[in-house]
Amino acid sequence: MEEVYNLAADMGGMGFIENNKAACMLSVLVNTHLLIASKDAKVTKYFYASSACVYNAEKQTRTDTRGLKEEDAYPAMPEDGYGWEKLFSERMCRHFTEDYGLETRVARYHNIYGPIGTWDGGREKAPAALSRKVAKAVLSGDLEIEIWGDGEQTRSFTYIDDCIQGTIRLMDSSVREPINIGSDEMVSINQLVELLERIASINLKKKFDLNAPKGVRGRNSDNSKIQELLGWAPSIDLESGLTQTYKWIYQQVKNAN
């Protein structure tokens, strides 16, 4: 076997991550067993899907945060549970390379979204959850939408096609260090909702749940390193990716009714 891709994890959006820390931590066993099996099978190259949740929380306290550079993961203060599992698993990959010569590649994914992804049930991320809520408003005529927090928290969202392209390029490279694969087009959650309103041709009343899980105040990807090392960075703009995502989720909601 030449390559192994570890894309598995017990995870979801912020609501799931904040309420299932132990379950998220158990995913370290997936990486442990896969690394051992890959070493024993003399696999040529091993890919590990990490997350922007590894980054130090103190660097994510402002909505106008700068993009997170790869070195911002240390000193370590990642997302409790899920972030610690990802950071620990990154270190495991590094040490399997150092001790056993297993070539590992690590990508820190930033909020991957797109059609044919989880859109309901509690594990979906913001683009899918909000697309579902907007689709339900369109179909039901109930023009109110609930937003977690005050909606001013900021994020960047990476379309699935960019994620796949970046992963392939990383695997084809000689880059051993963890690297961001994420859009640097940062928006607030309120701006994300406004974009969906435009896509769906609807105006909604916003209801803010200030007690809901919100995560860090601001998070964005710095793409300097991936541009330098791979000559590439994600390029699909949020409106284009979200339009395709909303259309697909709208159809799923319609079919479920």
Walkthrough of the structure:
- Helix 3 (28-40) packs parallel to helix 4 (82-100) and helix 7 (189-200) packs across helix 9 (238-256).
- The mean pLDDT is 97.
- Helix content is 42%, strand content 16%.
- The longest helix is centred in the middle third of the chain and has 19 residues, at 82-100.
- The protein is built from nine helices and ten strands.
- It has helices spanning 14-19, 21-25, 28-40, 82-100, 126-140, 160-171, 189-200, 224-230, 238-256; strands at 3-6, 45-51, 103-109, 112-113, 144-148, 154-156, 158-159, 179-181, 186-188, 205-209.
- The protein has a single domain (3-256), classed as NAD(P)-binding Rossmann-like Domain (Rossmann fold, 3-Layer(aba) Sandwich).
- The chain has a four-stranded parallel beta sheet with strand order 1-2-3-8. Strands 4-7 form a two-stranded parallel ribbon. Strands 5-10 form a two-stranded parallel sheet.
- The protein has 257 residues and is an alpha/beta fold.
- Strand 2 (45-51), helix 4 (82-100) and strand 3 (103-109) form a beta-alpha-beta unit.
